Amino acid sequence: MRNATTARVGGLGELRPPGRDARWIPVTYENDRSRKLSRPSPAALYLARLAPGSRRAGRQSLDLIAEILSGGPREGLDFPWELVRYPQSAAVRAVLAERYAPATANRILATLRGVLKEAWRLGLMTVEEYSRAADIQNVRGSGAETGRALCAEEISALLAACLRDRSPAGARDAAILSILLAAGLRRSEVVALNLDDIDLGTRAVLVRSGKGRKGRVVYLAGGGLAAARVWVAVRGVEPGPLFRPVAKGKRILPRRMSDAAVLYVVRRRAQEAGIPRFSPHDCRRTFVSNLLDAGADIGTVADLAGHANVQTTRRYDRRGEGAIRRAAELVRLPYPLDQGGTGGARTAC
Question: Tell me, which fold does domain 152-320 have in CATH?
Fold first, then answer.
């Protein structure tokens, strides 16, 4: 006999008829563990096509959607995604819109669309079932800006805190922060670097495991290049991960650092420097903002940051009102009574 279980949206109280509350829409599925062996998993295939650095966030999104639909903790890997229909998708969207900022909600909705497409590709859903279930609009609204850009004084204080640490960890952390700030890498991209990915002669850094499996080349200059050189001299020329853990006895361990270790480095050095807390991703915002402020073309900045769309790059801009004011001063109007001589470029006739 088949054992049927009912999944629900909302996670509180008794199940209600769908017509009374849009968030309570049941999904019935077979709770037969033999299905794990007899059918492929749309969730596993979806995660497999993501870049390694994106799989953790993808897994978390799948688990969250499964929890919303089930009304309790549930792993997304064994959830019956092929039984999701438009009412459930719309209900998930409503819950996400209530809980999260638009950008976060839309990222999770993209995960839902992706796993539904895998279910269709596997023949577990018809074209019509997939099209209807995936036909959910993004959550609108700009929301409040998250994150911040670090100022020059904060960056100087951070690097000074690293240099006060005479252990190998001090040189390593200075190099990590320099690459985050001067090259705009994601923390998953930083820990994925190998020694042969960085050429100190040409200043090139090869990012092999970018988001969406897209590689790119970025360049270090000035202090960023100097910090990288110091760390390589301390680390040695043995092949393998560029950034490695440092034991309490100041011994460099022959293995790769984790994403979480980079987060720890950022928080520890911020505390030592006496500056407000920031995230590794704020270093990317700083990188983008500084380049745009220096006059770099936004398309070039998007390429350096590994963004497929310049609109994504725009969301990283944290220059504020000052940048708008400076841009306005670049326009010159040749008014005869203007005694200030202010203004910028004019177009020649």
Answer: hpI Integrase; Chain A (1.10.443)
